[in-house]
């Protein structure tokens, strides 16, 4: 029972990550008709926003260690601590939440630059060329980050107040020893909030209504006199923000390295395929479904029955779905049914 | 055309001298990756299906060749045959599933399959692949065929062909012969009714269906042929460097063959080979550069300017070779979709129009 509950939470957590990235992919594909193979790199850039800001905040100087009196000893003390004392230390402790706020404008800018500088020239070119140019861009971004930050994963700590585990057993009135890491719970809630925010924007605002209309029939929207290009730029930026936030939040779970984007990209493309190309609810549903499946496939009991199942369960599901339901779980009629 | 190509290939040791590239290891890679790219071009350039999973077949070919050396014989002929056929079997399975979809779906599925092979090779399939350590030929492997013909245990097991050791230039000649055969077969495929069908599928698959053609068998056969070429390349890799590791299956290898084909010119016969040669040549150069080498190269500049130039260039060389690759990738896709061969044609057309 306890193991089942933990696996459910693990699955929701993993599914949240998949759903966020797949949501961004589906936004760019459904609205713009563009396949963005660099989307995983945006996830990685979001993670390295946190790393970069952490490195900036922890720039340090050598100061005398006052606790040692019989010889001169020095310690590295961040300037923030030197200038602001405990307030500076608190700022460093809260690097991830601070970086989340910074990541929104940064990723928005990155997304807009990417769309204005590159993607817009490919709207009318074949999907294969879109894939190729964004594939090249993904390589370029990964190598730039590698050149700046190195190839090793760089750990980032969540705020101290949420580094431990929550006593979810006590909350739910079952096993009092059952606990789950705070940051993973926060990740789960955050993914719900972000997904909810995107859906609210698309469904509750006139701007979002226009975007959805553009997804349904771009030419008709243009004939109505609406400037679709500007909305494309905004939607691409929005997709970049979603991916970036997902990456930034994930730094508390797994130390990021330059390759993390591609690992998530492959899985997220599979999620998009399973959910149905161009379907936002499909992307979210498939993300959580596949996250759950992978989580349960990681159980030792399951792995002893089916060796290697945890490595391939997502792909097997994708194959089965594509063979039996080519449109995907919630795919829309007529979208990429070839 | 085959004769000219053959002359060019077999005189590589001569005309590559001025470029400092006329040594066996590098020329072998030209030939091997040329085969890989030519095979990929049959699927992408000719049929129009963009696969991101061809590295899986390269890996399968490598593993199969090493197992052939371990179980059958050190002769390269069984190794080549087994590599090609095994990759073909894999291609049937993967192609049958992947080709249910086209376009983006196909690319995603092939990428997923390759990633799955890569993951499994490092984990569950360790008994077959020896995981991260890599699969290698050992002295006390069975080698059934060699035993049948009375060969005694060799001190250091090396690939050979009927007693001739495959080392140095012999390795290159072996690869060159395979490249010639591969090119000839590709030429025949391109200029056959089958090739015309493939081009029709690339042009407009829907229209082909309306005309009454069932396009699926054609695409599947193209996929299988393409996979077999990759398996052959993988087998040759194992022959010249008998250590099969899973890193050959990684997505970067798939991306690299795409880039070779596109750089050279997808849909042309010579393009993939040209692209493979260029990329392997510059990889060989760029990968070996470091900050010290750059400092030497730019020492004619004033110290401050030199420092700036070295700082700018260093991310693109050494371990950062992939950055150069990525930038090159983007530039070619954006500005020269037809690749270098197309560029040469345009230049040629320019001169001809001037003459006219």
From TrEMBL, chain A:
CDD domains: TM_PBP1_LivH_like (cd06582). GO terms for cellular component: plasma membrane. It is found in: Cell membrane. GO terms for biological process: amino acid transport. The keyword Nucleus does not apply. InterPro entries: ABC_transp_permease, BCAA_transport_permease. The chain crosses the membrane at residues 15-35, 42-60, 88-110, 131-149, 185-211, 232-253, 265-293, 305-323. GO terms for molecular function: transmembrane transporter activity. The keyword Zinc-finger does not apply. It comes from the Bacteria. Belongs to the binding-protein-dependent transport system permease family. LivHM subfamily. This is Branched-chain amino acid ABC transporter permease. It comes from Acuticoccus sediminis.
